[in-house]
Specification:
The chain is of the alpha/beta class and 321 residues long. It has 14 helices and eleven strands. The chain has a five-stranded parallel β-sheet with strand order 3-6-9-1-10, covered by helices on one side.
């Protein structure tokens, strides 16, 4: 990819009608379900994240389909997809790119890293040291990277889907809070139930279904659907409700939800409204999304509590007006 290719995306998005955007989500979701069995809620949560201009962290034990789910989402949209396998010896330049001296032109040429794609899969992100993990901070927050003093814009749309396993803690590096806070949502898949696992075994007995998965949407479709989400009305009472929920977590935890988290919840609620075919946010949207947007940003005061516990307490205590 040349430097001119890096800057090739031009935002010509036009907001779709809400019904069309909702239909697009359903089409992509059904396509992913051809590969991923029994995780319809997780698929929907990922699509909400993508539409809301966010990034996603999938955490679970090995072998439950985290990487396959991310790949299926990416293959369902005709966009550029890159995968980074995070390892202990991975360097920041392996993610962002580097300047290489060209002997013929006697000049330095920038060679983009895998972060210059529409969907970037960071596989087992917690296996890389903190210095390499932090290479994604600027990209996730500002949709740009700076290498040797030069700042370059990333693709539009741009989404990071990272996976990490929660076993073998002695062989992994905990993600810093500054990076965790940049993920709009954190999801766990869990093991499939017996019926779903049986169906999965039937589908994968021969060729894996992802090999024949075809895209059902374009990058332009995705940009247009994102524009639809951005136009969804979040009224003042809804914004006040989100603020009060965030304040509750700050008052009842060692570390509560940041303003970035509040913004993420409003955007996720807007996307949820579109998924449900509405052009306005209702409290149910906020409550549905809070359970995946807030918990990973919260550090409870006691070891007996979790971020989800504090979030549930907030939802039960803060009145809806």
């Amino acid at each position: 990819m040349s430097e001119s290719d890096v800057d090739a995306d031009v935002d010509n998005s036009t907001a779709l009608p809400v019904d069309d955007a909702s239909e697009l989500v359903g089409r992509v979701s059904d396509n992913v379900a051809e590969v991923i069995v029994g995780h319809s809620d997780a698929i929907e949560h990922i699509l909400v994240t993508v539409l809301a201009r966010g990034h996603l962290l999938l955490e679970d034990v090995p072998g439950v389909g985290k990487t396959m789910l991310a790949r299926s989402i990416a293959r369902s949209v005709d966009c550029e997809f890159k995968r980074v396998q995070f390892t202990p010896d991975l360097l920041p330049a392996d993610v962002t790119g580097t300047n290489v001296f060209d002997q013929k032109s006697q000049e330095f040429e920038f060679r983009p890293g895998p972060v210059f794609a529409n969907v970037v899969l960071g596989d087992e992100i917690n296996r890389a040291p903190p210095k390499t993990q932090s290479a994604l901070l600027e990209a996730m927050e500002e949709q740009q990277v700076t290498v040797d003093g030069d700042t370059r814009d990333l693709r539009d749309p741009f989404t990071v889907i990272a996976t990490q396993n929660d076993v073998e803690p002695g062989r992994t590096y905990e993600l810093p809070m500054a990076e965790i806070d940049r993920f709009m949502k954190k999801l766990r898949l869990g093991y499939p139930d017996a019926d779903d696992e049986t169906v999965m075994l039937e589908r994968t007995a021969g060729r894996h279904p992802i090999e024949s998965l075809e895209p059902v949407a374009t990058t332009g479709d995705l940009r247009d659907a994102r524009a639809t989400v951005a136009d969804v009305e979040a009224s003042e009472p809804i914004r006040e409700y989100v603020t009060e929920l965030a304040n509750y977590t700050r008052e009842h935890a060692q570390l509560g939800v940041s303003p970035r988290g509040s913004i993420a919840l409003v955007r996720a609620a807007q996307a949820r409204a579109v998924v449900d075919g509405r052009g306005y946010v209702i409290p149910d949207d906020v409550q549905t999304e809070a359970r995946t947007v807030f918990p990973h940003r919260i550090r409870p005061r006691t070891g007996s509590e979790t971020g989800l516990d504090v979030t549930e307490d907030a939802l039960n205590s803060v009145p809806v007006e």
